[in-house]
Design goal:
16 helices, three-stranded mixed beta sheet, 8 strands, mainly alpha, ADP-ribosylglycohydrolase fold
Length: 503
């Protein structure tokens, strides 16, 4: 069943279920009132009409609940104090999405991203295919290396784990921010505090200068660092991402800092791309920009996943749609098609990765020259080769979050970044409980943004529930201001028009 048709069926079933449930609770209320009146007539005839009325009103109040979109009685429907919620007339073509369910999915996004990010950090820059000046980086890991000793990266050994394995923050611990999560955190904060759906260049510059350290270690590299330097000189985005101003315009930076905009415009890739345009162009152009658009579309389409299909099937459909963001003559498009062809041919993920390396880093086909253009580490930070590696983990992971993270961590190059992208996407699709079930454990809920950034309340300590709730408030605004839809706080749902959605 097509996702749009499925969503319409969901909507019809939802309305029918809501009607039945409401009738049920009305019947319960009537029975309760009848019993009360019978009791009063039998034993309290002298009670005044005033007191009787007071008892009835009290009973009504005690039976007053807010009905969530799942049909369960809830008391905690969240509402943004900074937003004026407008009345909206639902249309039969609208897609209905539960805010509470989506909040749980956003929690899963932050959790899945952190698990993948920290696991990928163990192997980051261990293997880049081509040795650097010190001889490090040659060769690649295989799945047999999972659970074995981590090898030194280009700069030495990591400080996180001596073994290649999942890296968790336990329940009584705190997740630390990293460059895969912290700028997305900043963008979410800027959208909310500025009460806007579309960031301006001045908002981005102000936010970066407020929340990013000027000195090392500030957890910025290549294009992001260059953009910050230009902002400190007074330059505004998108000029900070122009090739003539930023020689790192085709590095990986944008594709790991802007995916979240896809979640801010659920089902509507057109609006998600509009929201992400300036943040992406702050640091990227050409292939790096197109790859970032690919990731944004993947995230925006995730809420349209068909529950009757496997995660693998949904991911394949989403990837086919996102592929349309890559110009056919670009090396990023040809990389995607090449890896997809290798996957469909039946070769192992290791063989596909090795073939990707030979085609683009050794032979430098399809105009991909970053292995020699970037003399620092043979293009290890380049958008292209890391995008190719990300598609290896996406396709061969086949919707299994643990396998996807394993492959991503072992694939090579800037392994934490692509791994975090798909860990976040799969975390969203699974939701909080789904991630916990996949790993058969509970995780820390707290998040320390001040590990890498500065200037946030509570000494930088936040939690995934609060972060997800802020995301819901941003979407409330986006639904009203950009999607032309509505927010029903009584039913705790969004109504999202589909007229202009990318097909």
């Amino acid at each position: 069943m097509h996702p749009k048709c499925f969503c319409r069926l969901q909507c019809i079933c939802h309305l029918f279920t809501q009607t039945i449930i409401k009738l049920y609770y009305v019947a319960l209320l009537c029975m309760k009132l009848s019993t009360m009146i019978l009791f009063l007539n039998r034993y309290s005839k002298k009670i005044s009409n005033y007191f009787l009325a007071l008892l009835i009103i009290t009973s009504l109040i005690s039976c007053t609940y807010k009905m969530g979109s799942t049909g369960k009685m809830v008391h905690d429907i969240v509402q943004d104090s900074l937003l004026d919620y407008k009345t909206y007339q639902q249309k039969n073509t609208d897609i209905t999405i539960s805010r509470s369910v989506y909040k749980n999915k956003l929690y899963g996004f932050w959790l899945g991203q952190c698990i993948a990010n920290w696991t990928g950090l163990i192997t980051e820059m261990d293997k880049i295919g081509i040795p650097n000046s010190e001889g490090k980086g040659e060769g690649f890991y295989t799945m047999d290396d999972w659970g074995k000793a981590d090898q030194p990266n280009l700069w030495g050994s990591n400080n996180y784990s001596k073994t290649i394995d999942f890296l968790y923050a336990d329940q009584d611990s705190i997740w630390g921010a990293d460059d895969d999560t912290d700028i997305e955190y900043i963008y979410q904060e800027l959208l909310y505090k500025n009460k806007t759906s579309i960031l301006t260049g001045d908002m981005i510059r102000t936010g970066w200068l407020k929340h990013i350290k000027k000195e090392e270690e500030n957890y910025l590299w290549v294009s992001n660092q260059q953009a910050l330097d230009l902002m400190e000189e007074g330059m505004l985005p998108p000029q900070t991402g122009l090739p003539e101003n930023n020689p790192f315009y085709e590095m990986i930076d944008a594709q790991l800092t802007t995916e979240i905009f896809g979640f801010f415009a659920p089902t509507r890739s057109d609006v998600a791309l509009k929201m992400a345009n300036l943040p992406i162009r702050t640091v990227a152009r050409e292939n790096a920009e197109w790859i970032s658009n690919f990731n944004v579309v993947m995230y925006a389409l995730a809420p349209l996943a068909d529950d009757e299909k496997s995660i693998k099937e949904n991911l394949n459909w989403m990837a086919a749609e996102a592929r349309k963001q890559l110009p056919n003559d670009s090396y990023s498009a040809k990389m995607f098609d090449f890896v997809k062809g290798e996957y469909e041919s039946g070769v192992t993920w290791e063989e596909a990765r090795d073939a990707l390396h030979e085609k683009y880093q050794i032979l430098q086909e399809d105009g991909y020259l970053w292995a020699t253009k970037d003399e620092t580490c043979n293009g290890c930070f380049a958008a292209g080769i890391n995008f190719g590696a990300s598609i290896v983990s996406l396709l061969y992971g086949e919707g299994d979050i643990k396998e996807t993270i394993k492959i991503g961590a072992l694939c090579g190059w800037d392994s934490d970044n692509p791994t975090a992208t798909w860990g976040g996407l799969l975390g969203f699709m699974l939701g909080k409980e789904g991630v916990e079930k996949a790993f058969d454990r509970k995780f820390a809920e707290k998040f320390n943004i001040h590990r890498t950034r500065i200037g946030f309340p509570n000494n930088g300590i936040d939690d995934f529930n609060h972060m997800a709730e802020k995301g819901i408030f941003i979407i409330d605004r986006v639904v009203q201001e950009e999607l032309g839809g509505g927010v029903d706080l009584n039913k705790d749902v969004w109504y999202i028009p589909q007229k202009n959605r990318i097909k």
